Structure formats: C-alpha cells, structure tokens
Amino acid sequence: MRGIVKAVDNVSFSLEKETVLGIAGESGSGKSTLAWSIMGLPPPPGRIIGGRIFIDGIDVLSLKEEERRRKILWQKVSMVFQGAINAFNPVYTIGYQIAEPLMLHRGYSKKEALQKAVELVKSVGLNPDVIHRYPHELSGGMKQRAVIAMALVLDPPLLIADEPTTALDVVVQAQILNLLKKLKFERKLSVILITHDLSVIAELADYVAVMYAGRIVEYGPIEEVYNNPRHPYTQLLLSSIPRLRGTIDKLRFIPGEPPDLINPPKGCKFHPRCPFVFDECRVSEPDLITVGENHLARCWLASKR
Amino acid sequence: MDNELLTIMLKDPSIILGVNNLKVWYPIRKGLMDYIYRRKQRFAKAVDGISFAVRRGETFCLAGESGCGKTTTGKSLLGLTPITEGNAFFRPRKEVINELQKAGLSTINSDIVDIFRLSWKGLKYVKRDITIIYQDPYGSLNPSATIKDILEEPLLIHSLLKDEEERKEIIYQVLEQVKLTPAADIATRYPHQLSGGQRQRVAIARAIITRPSLVVADEPVSMLDASIRAEILELMLDLKRNLNLTYIFITHDLAVARYICDRIAIMYLGKIVEIGDARRVIENPMHPYTQALVAAIPEPEPKNRLKLREVPIKGEVPSAVNIPTGCRFHPRCVARDKNLERLGDICVKQEPGLTTLNNDERLVACWLYRNSYKLSPEKSS
Predict the structure, then answer these.
(1) Which residue does chain A place closest to B304, by CA atoms?
(2) Suppose B44 and one of A249, B101, B250, B320 were both cysteines; which one would form an S-S bond, judging by CB atoms 3.0 to 4.6 Å apart?
(3) A96 and A233 share a domain?
(4) A230 and A85, same structural domain?
(5) What are the chain B neighbours of A172 within 8 Å (beta carbons)?
(6) What is the pLDDT of residues A112-121, one digit of tens each?
(7) Which residues neighbour B78 within 8 Å (Cβ) at sequence distance 6 or greater?
(8) What's the domain count of chain A?
(9) Against a cut of 0.80, is the pTM above it?
(10) pLDDT, tens only, A98-108
(11) Do A244 and B258 count as a contact with CB atoms less than 8 A apart?
(12) Per the CB < 8 Å rule, is B311 touching A205?
C-alpha cells in the first residue's frame, strides 16, 4: 500500500428543502466520492471513517446496510450518476425498470406500477410509449430523462445528480437542466448537483460549495460566490472560463497541477498553486472562515480582513 | 465546380487550404432482407458536401454537436478516413513541394496539391506539413514509449534528422516550447507519469515537431479541467504566433471557439449551415440552428437559475442514414414554423445553398435569408 488517500476530508454542509446545492470541483477533488458517501456507499476500497449524515432526520450511517437499502435509498435519496445513460439493463423495457422499485418497496402490482411509470415518464417530458421500449431504442437525452424519472419514482425529497449532463450535447443539456429546474419547483425537490462545470451550476444551484483536494474551500449563496469570490481558487477558476458574450479578456489559469492526495502539501492544500501565498499558508491549514452572510472561505487572506 | 475554388486559390496565395464539396459516406452493412428485396446500398452520410477555405495564419473552427461530421472532416484532411467525393487543395511548404517534385509527383501550379488525390507516398510528404492533435491525451500517446520516443517517431518516419544528438536537441527544444520543463527529465518519462494537461502538451509537441504549417486540433481541450484548459488554449495561441501555424480547430464548445477562433463554420448533419467571422457568428447568429446552439449554452451567471432557458429547436438530431429532404434542419426548425406562410414548402423540397449576407463575409444556408426563390433545380454549393 502506497498510502491513504483522503478523498473527502472534513466536509460539512446542510441543505434546506427545495434548494439546490451545487458542488463544484475539478477531477480528483472528491466531489463524486462525496456524492456516493452521502448515500452511504463510498466507492471501494474507500471507507467512511468519521462524520455523520442526516437525511430527512434519519442518521444514515447508523443503519445497517439492509435497513439503509429499505429505508433510505430510493425513498429518501436517489442518485442520477455520471454515465447514467448506460445504467439501464438492456434486456428489460424502460417502463419495467422505472416501475420495479414501486413493486419492491411499495408492493404495487405490475399494472399499477406501470401506470405510475407512465405518469412519471410524462412528467419528465417523454412520450408515454417509451415505457414499452428498450434502452437501445432511446437517444442519450431520452435515456437521461428516463433515468431522472427512475430516480423520482418513490418521491424522494433529495436527489443527487452527479454530472447529469456531461455526456450530452449542449441542446440536450439545456433541456435536461430545464427539466431539473421544473422538477425542483413542482416536486419541492432538494438537489445536490455535482459537476466540474461552473456554468451548469449557475443554471440550477442556489448555494454552491467549491471543493479542492477533498475539502470545501468556499461555500455560500451562488450570487455571493460567483460575484464576490473570496478564495483564490474560486477566483481563478471563474476567470478561466471563456465567456460567450461580452469582451474577450485574456483567460487566467491556475499554474501547476492538483496535489497528490497521498502526500498532500502541508498547510493550505492550495498554497503551491496560489498566487497570493504567504508564510502562514505553508505552515497551517485555515478553517472555513465566515466572510459574509452564509458565505465561508477556507483562506488565510479572508481572515486577515 | 472544383475549378471554381481552385481558381480562387490560384489568385489568392493567402489561402492555405481549400476544401471543395467533401463527402464522406460510410456504407451501411446490408442485412439478409436487404439482399432478398434487393434494396439499394444505404449510407451514413457523415459529411455530405461541404466547402470552405482556410487562410494562412488563421484559426478556422469547425463546430457543431456530436455526429455533425466535424471530426470526420478533420480526419479526412490527413487521409485518415476514405472519402467519397471532393477535393482538398493544400499549399504545402516549399520544402515539401520540392520533395514531391523530386519524387516525380505532380502538383498544381507547382505549389498546390489535392490531398485526396495523392498517392500514399505523396501523402506521407504532405503529412509532415499537416499534423493532428487528438481529443484524448490518455488514448493518443503510446503507454509503453517514453516521451522522447513519442516525439522522436515523427522525425524518424519523415527521416528529418539523421543524427541522434540533433534529434535530441530538437525534442528538448520542442518540449520547452510547450513549457514542459525540465525537458531532459520529462523526455525520459512515460505518459502515465504525467498529468492530463502535461500529456496534452506532449501531444501538441508531437504535432509541431515536424514544423507543420497546418495543425488540425480535434477537441484538444474538451477532456481537460477548466483551469488547465485555459492554459492549453493560451499555449496554442502562443505557438501559433511564434511558429506561424494555421489551425483547424474542431470543437463543440462555442465559448472556446469565440475565444480562440478567427472564423467559424457551424455544421449540422454533415453540412455547413453558417460560416463567417467567429465573434460575429456567435454574437449574432443568423441560421436558426446556430441560434439554438448559442441559446443553449450555459454561462457562469447565477441569474440564469431563476428562469427556464429557451432553446428554439424541437425534436432530436435525425440519423445520418435518413437525412430529411430539402433543408436537413427543417423538421427541427422553429423559425420555419413562424414564417411558414412566406416560405411555403421550399424548406421541405429543396436544400438551400450557402448564400452571402452582404454586410460581412458571412454565408448562411437558410431560405429565410433569400429574398426571392422559386422551386427550381438550382445549383447548391
């Protein structure tokens, strides 16, 4: 064993009803690990070694696996994960796969379950006859809609969407994001939206948490974080995105590479790449410091003001 | 028709590449029933008759969604995919022309070659002058070769430098140009020891080591993280200036295109629907498809979450096997519905050619912008 990777380290947040939290981060920042861990399913060989997760008042980690499967997954939280469009079993119809949790969890008959599936399929903007079709007959965008329908079948209050639009073309991406917006209002859904794309987060999220090297480096209401970013990483990340409108400014970039999580740098994890680094950053790691209303940043600079 | 573009090219030496009526059709495998009923051979028309010209020193962008034919177009320019029809007139560097003439291969006006008509040998000479950067830096580098081996290969294939020390020197020099330092250390490493951004730099180094004049960059930054993406784009712009490169930049990301490209061609289902100055096309799109594409792009603007994004397009991309009649965008076109009275069924019956809009160098393939039209066997370009 070469060492231990602390993929997600000391992450805390809370999420209110009917709000969307965007978790932004680059590859290796721990955002997907975080998503799976919220479900109590950290990707192996990873383990949750500390902390607690409450979903709708239930302590997820205190439950046994069997219990968690019965009470939490699908019922309280479901997930639309990366590459979900390949998540369907090719030998069953879409309708059956959407209806299956209803039969298993709620004891619906097949007919009732399929009827509910039709309703759901309609609510995600698909033609009801897709329930008789097989996954290979659907386009990528249609499959992604069907996956969202499947995730909502037991009416969970929380949906985790991990890179829900990454594999899709922009037109389809816009349609899926519109669908998620609509569902958020109609079903009073809370969503945790995980993506590397800050533009996608801006389409949906009320709050945003920016992750770097396994921890949250900035958190706050999206307007605050985007218009007044306080962590240098967030600042640089936002100015590294080419814009579609307005003047063409020279893009800024973050020199260097993300840290090796087996041997993370001492002090602030971002200090080797930070343009504002000073002595303190190299020695000790800052906590999340309140920099505004509900706005936190893990940066020594923020505490100096 | 080929002579039209060629004539323009002969008059205007600033044009480095002229692609004329390129078609790349892939035959669909026939099934038993197709044989029994003697059905005609069907094709997936990945690229279905496109023409464009690229000026020396510009970044020309091919943009569109997946399946629009942009990558196929790029590949065809290096002879990497068999083409069905068309010409690609290319003006190689003097040395390449000399080599071609020495080998007894014919050229047009002694400075132009048609890439699609070259022999295998001729293509090899020309590929010193046209290179490609692929999308996936994880898949495009040989995992069992060191960076030095990877960069040395083009030099060996083209027998450019006989002396090993000279080759080494060039390799180090190119590594420094793509800002991979210390070069001597990087050269001994294997691809898996580098990060994604570093690997893409190696891919860029490999593309420029033969000192090409034209580089086809196929989605070079779409697999990279945002912070690294900006750095690679800046590097590519620097290299272009310093080495007098011309880029054909293939991308699905119009924000990136607006940043890096001079001119842009928007493709849909194997056709160019709009072509012109990149900023003007993106900021003021004319073709209904381009308008939809631009409207669909999210931006890091928090206000956007409060409203639904209106994308003026309906349905889904049809398959390249069953291309709709007339204008291939008509089944998805919202603008047509709004102007149905004026347009009638011309969009269904006849394919619009690319027409000039007088104010800029823009061409749009849409009936909306024709003042007068009648159903006739009109020439479409």
Answers:
(1) A203
(2) B320
(3) no
(4) no
(5) 316
(6) 999 999 999 9
(7) B127, B130, B131, B132, B216
(8) 2
(9) yes
(10) 999 999 888 99
(11) yes
(12) no
